[in-house]
Amino acid sequence: MARTYYAEGRQAAYVLRGLFIIVGLTIYFKIPGLHWGYLFGILLGSVIIGEIFGSMWTRKQRQKKKSKVAGTKKTGRSRTASTNNGVSKAKGKITSKKLTDAQILQANVDTLSGTDFERLMELYYTDQGYSVQRVGGSGDHEVDLILKGKEGYKIAVQCKRWKRDVGNDIVLRLKAGKQVHGCYDAWIVTTSNFTKAAKEAADRLNIKLINGVALADRLKRWKKNRVI
User: Fold this and answer.
1) pLDDT by residue (tens digit) across 90-108?
2) Residues in CB range of 150: below 8 A, 6 or more apart
3) Domain spanning 101-225, CATH class
């Protein structure tokens, strides 16, 4: 934009210079007997005055542009800050929301987060007479819950609230997790289903698989008889 304003300023200078020259020459030739020095003065004065006015115009336009840009940046920062605050508050509201046990029991399983699904299964197995320990988190070796029955042996449980089928990689990792946590048995509970490879691996490793259909039936009967 600086070059544009400069070019426009030069154009304004040329126009003013031409006007001053025309006016000066008109006056010079209308007044007889004027010394030729006046003609030279008129020409030189017209050039100087034109340059001054052209520079003034360019400087004024640049200042107006700077003021406009500064105002736009300030407004943009204010709007961005306002938007970011709104987004942060919205995110905080979502992440800070924690469902109660009653809400988890009443909710559709498919709408639960992975963590809330683990809590649902914790409630379910507690009502089945198990002592339940929540594991989860990093380094859990695919073990979300550890059940301990009256007989005293432990069961490693992996909870998958998935839409896609659970693959054999989960089965193999749970086998290792079962050993790490010193469990006697291992179960995988999912809201979906299992791939053929996962079923074959689970059969070889003696890992129990509970798919979405079987889980829905168990939860339905449990919730029907449970007093919330």
Assistant:
1) 444 433 468 999 999 999 9
2) 129
3) alpha beta
Task: Report the DSSP pairing between strands 131-134 and 145-148.
Answer: antiparallel
Q: Please give the structure tokens belonging to residue 91.
A: 């995110």
Distance in angstroms (rounded) separating the CA atoms of residues 216 and 2: 71
| Cα–Cα nearest to 174, from 148, 135, 213 | 135
Q: CA end-to-end span of the chain, whole Å?
A: 71
The C-alpha angle 30, 35, 37, rounded to 5 degrees, equals 110
Structure tokens given for 226:
């449970």
- Structure pTM? 0.57
Residue closest to 212 by CA, chosen among 144, 146, 174, 160: 160
What does 147-212 look like in DSSP terms, one character per residue? EE-TT--EEEEEEE--SSPB-HHHHHHHHHHHHHTT-SEEEEEESS-B-HHHHHHHHHHT-EEE-H
What are the two backbone dihedrals, phi and then psi, of residue 73, each rounded to the nearest 5 degrees?
Answer: -60, -45
Q: What is the C-alpha to C-alpha distance for residues 45 and 66, in angstroms, rounded to an integer? A: 32
pLDDT tens figures, 106-138: 999 999 999 999 999 999 999 999 999 999 666
